[in-house]
Amino acid sequence: MSIWLVMVLAGLATFGTRLSFIYTLDRMRVPGWFQRALRFVPAAVLSAIILPELVTRNSGLDLSWHNPQLLSGILAILVAWRTKNVILTITAGMLALLILQVLLRGA
Amino acid sequence: MEKSRRREFWAGVRDETPILLGVVPFGLIYGALAMHANLSLAASQAMSAIIFAGASQIIAAQLVAAGATGIVILVVVFVVNLRHALYSASMAPYIKHLDPAWKLLLAYLLTDEAYAVAITHYRREGEAAERHWYFLGAGLTLWSSWQVSTLCGIFIGAQIPPNWPLSFVLPLTFIALIVPALKDRASVAAALVAGLVGLLAMGFPYKTGLLLAAFTGILTGLAVEGRPK
After folding, report:
1. pLDDT values of chain B reduced to their tens digit, one per residue, 229 residues
2. Is A103 near chain B, with CB under 8 Å?
3. pTM of the predicted model, to two decimals?
4. ipTM for this prediction
5. Are residues A47 and A86 in the same domain?
């Protein structure tokens, strides 16, 4: 298979996946449990993306207080919870990360 | 009408902007990997427009470099991007009133980063009629910066040190979007279980751990919420 054909097919597969429910959902009768389940999609998927990012360092698991990402992430969670402010959360998390990376260097 | 459309669009652009700090490094990495895999310049850049999904493009470039067959690359890209079906289901009720052209366009723009920002906006209180313009603003912002950053990666390569701190903007933005939305026990349980399973399944290939984590989290949410009264 030429690389162009692979790309086009992979692109169609990705696009089809993204379009799947957007295209079909208003054409079918959706069971109640399915509708209730949709409410949990953002919390579930995004948490499953976030947590591994916080605890991996140098491509290994690091749950210690030497891990600047983990500490900055916890701080960001607290800031997001208290302030509900996106920019403030990102800024606090980034500043914490930069400071902790210097402080914990060699730790 | 016109004014509220424009306002929604630019609000989407604005809210998507911080996340770009985390996306651009990945665009550079992808561009550099694609060149390293001996893909032509045109093919490297075209993949960003045709597939438009960062993680899967990075893996695809690595597979090309390793000499994998086309069918393997195809299946892997499909599996890595399966999580987008969840986004599609979650977004569908909010955009079901739109005409087909809008649905096609928004589906094309439905990435992790655009989804996170747009779904948060859809769930806010208030006038919702023109919110697809917000989604469009967020989606196009991500799309254009992805095209430009992969192009830069192709030409200048990725001179990015490991543990580059800006990549951390990505999880931070997701934290900022999702934590305020955890307002009840069921959502908190869904998030905690999904995060934990995601951690345990970190070693699973091609983001299948992420899928497993998402489904476990969603089921947990349903179970904690219990039967509707």
Report:
1. 788 999 999 999 999 999 999 899 889 989 999 998 999 999 999 999 999 999 999 999 999 999 999 999 999 999 999 999 999 999 999 999 999 999 999 999 999 999 999 999 999 888 778 999 999 999 999 999 999 999 999 998 766 665 567 788 889 999 999 999 999 999 999 999 999 999 999 888 888 999 999 999 999 999 999 866 5
2. no
3. 0.90
4. 0.91
5. yes
Tell me, yes or no, whether A7 and A58 share the same domain.
Answer: no
Which of B196, B189, B178, B198 minimizes the C-alpha distance to B218? B189
* Burial label, A16 (beta-carbon count in 10 A; 0-12, 13-18, 19+): middle
Chain B hits for A18, Cβ within 8 Å: 81, 84-85, 87-88, 107-108, 110
Domain containing A24 equals 1-39
Same-domain status, A51 and A90: yes
Domain count, chain A: 2
Residue A43 in contact with residue B142, Cβ under 8 Å?
A: no
Please say whether the beta carbons of B48 and B147 come within 8 A.
Answer: yes
